[in-house]
Each structure stands twice: as structure tokens, then as C-alpha cells.
Structure to design on (180 residues):
């Protein structure tokens, strides 16, 4: 954590589905160096390309979770709908920096590419390292809940549920190994 106010306003965004400790850590990180956060929560349009997008909570529900957390933490934040990766970051004088995670750094770089093409100065990018999954079982159980919804909705054979769980477990383990 930086713990020094460097900017008036910092932009960050995400899906914020099944709001968890990683989301909280990311928001706290951005708040540690900004007076105000502009937090974009992806709309349905932006989640359509995500795997198992039918299990993603509605945007208003995800926004509410972010807003409630910020309120409880005393974080000054404006929650907005995010219809593309840019949000207000390509509008003049909206944010002074970008906060992202290691997973979304490429999007932050894309924002600066577009700003540069628009003859706007590039924004400083602050990358928050993803939290190590402290409880792998809890993470898998969350995924199982999502899979159960999909199985019910699509009447998939149970075999595919097992395949998905194994693939997701492999993803989580590989991500944790990459972070360490």
C-alpha cells in the first residue's frame, strides 16, 4: 500500500462478481493514493464474452456490493457503469491515474495507447498484485455454486461438471504459482 494521497481521482474497473477479499484489497489499494475513486462496474454487454457469463450477477447487484463496501470503509467513490474498457479514462480531466490488477494491466496499457492517439497525456498506472487464494477449497466451492446453476440451466451431463471443476482448479493453482 502506498498510503499517501497522490491524486485527486483514480479510475479502476472490473466485474466485481461475487465480491470477495481480492476486490476489497484492490479497492483499498487504489484508495490509499487517491482522494476519490471512479469505479467502473462492467455492464452485461461487457460480460458476454466471459466464460460462464450466465452465472454473473446483475450489474446493479455488483455495483451495490462495491458501493456498500466503499461506504463501510469510508472510501470516497463514485460507482459508474462500464460499457467498455475505457470508461471516463479517455475523457479530459476525469482521472489522474489508473489502478489495475496484474490481470487487467493490458487494458490499462490500451487506455494509454488510445489517450496518446488522442493527443492526451498518458496516465500513471498502478498495478495491484492479485491476492494469493488463501483458501482454495472456498474458492472451488464458489465455483461449484456457479457450476450447479449452469448444470440446472443447461441440463449438462455431470461428466462436464467434473471436467469444468478440474479445469478451474488447474487455473487457480497455475495462477497462484505464477504469483509466487
Amino acid at each position: 500500500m502506498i498510503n499517501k494521497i497522490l491524486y485527486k481521482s483514480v479510475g479502476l474497473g472490473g466485474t466485481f462478481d461475487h465480491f470477495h477479499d481480492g476486490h476489497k484489497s484492490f479497492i483499498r489499494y487504489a484508495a490509499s493514493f487517491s482522494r476519490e475513486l471512479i469505479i467502473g462496474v462492467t455492464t452485461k454487454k461487457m460480460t458476454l464474452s466471459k466464460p460462464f457469463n450466465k452465472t454473473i450477477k446483475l450489474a446493479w447487484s455488483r455495483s451495490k456490493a462495491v458501493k456498500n463496501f466503499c461506504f463501510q470503509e469510508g472510501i470516497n467513490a463514485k460507482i459508474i457503469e462500464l460499457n467498455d474498457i475505457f470508461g471516463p479514462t479517455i475523457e479530459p480531466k476525469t482521472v489522474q491515474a489508473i489502478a489495475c490488477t496484474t490481470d487487467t494491466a493490458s487494458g490499462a496499457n490500451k487506455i494509454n495507447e488510445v489517450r496518446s492517439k488522442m493527443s492526451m497525456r498518458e496516465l500513471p498506472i498502478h498495478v495491484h498484485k492479485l491476492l494469493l487464494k488463501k483458501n482454495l477449497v472456498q474458492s472451488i466451492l464458489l465455483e461449484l455454486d456457479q457450476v450447479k446453476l449452469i448444470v440446472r440451466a443447461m441440463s449438462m451431463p455431470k461428466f462436464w461438471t467434473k471436467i469444468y471443476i478440474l479445469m478451474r482448479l488447474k487455473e487457480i493453482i497455475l495462477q497462484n504459482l505464477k504469483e509466487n
User: Anything to note?
Assistant: Residues 136-179 form one domain. The chain has a mean pLDDT of 83.
